[in-house]
Design a protein that fits this description.
The chain is mostly helical. The protein contains 8 helices and 2 strands, in the order H-H-H-H-H-H-H-E-E-H. It has a single domain, classed as dinb family like domain (Four Helix Bundle (Hemerythrin (Met), subunit A)), CATH 1.20.120. A two-stranded antiparallel ribbon has the order 1-2.
Length: 167
């Protein structure tokens, strides 16, 4: 199994969880926040997808799916178009109102497709490329992609947990 095959499988697992969590939910359920303070399913899936879109697009040297394919306009959120949810307050989480799980799932699928396309274009040597030298040690492409998978799986698991708490 190649590096790309392993990562394709990993990102595919994220996609499976996202679709299982979103299946059949209403807009109200997407916005439900445990105890009125926890992150909602809508925010969690939006955030994990935005981070994946941001990080993979940066590594690929391409525009984000969010802006390039018009998803930012479809979601019409009250944030800067570059927002990924990092550092969001409770009020920001409340502001992420998703009209349907299909909108969120569609955006995730578009980001997933761009991610898989990028992965299939990589060579074994590409994974050692430094993509962020603001850290010590500098972050390689391999580490960045594993970090995105890790973050995505954590947030997808959180979204699944919140789904289990739905009233």
């Amino acid at each position: 199994m190649s590096e790309a095959d392993l990562l394709v499988d990993s990102f595919g697992r994220v996609r499976e969880i996202v679709h299982e969590v979103l299946h059949g939910l209403s807009a109200k359920q997407l916005s439900y926040r445990p105890d009125g303070r926890g992150n909602s399913i809508g925010w969690l899936v939006w955030h994990l997808t935005r981070v994946q879109d941001d990080h993979v697009a940066d590594a690929a040297g391409k525009a984000q799916v969010w802006t390039e394919q018009g998803w930012a306009d479809r979601f019409d959120l009250p944030f800067d178009r570059a927002a990924t949810g990092y550092g969001h307050s409770g009020a920001d989480v409340d502001a992420v109102r998703i009209s349907s799980p299909d909108l969120l799932g569609g955006y995730h699928d578009a980001v997933h497709a761009a991610t898989i396309d990028f992965l299939h274009g990589l060579t074994a040597d590409d994974y050692a490329t430094v993509v962020d030298d603001a850290w010590d040690p500098p972050v390689t492409l391999a580490i960045r992609l594993v970090s995105v998978v890790s973050d995505d799986l954590q947030h997808a698991g959180q979204a699944a947990y919140v789904r289990g708490l739905l009233p």
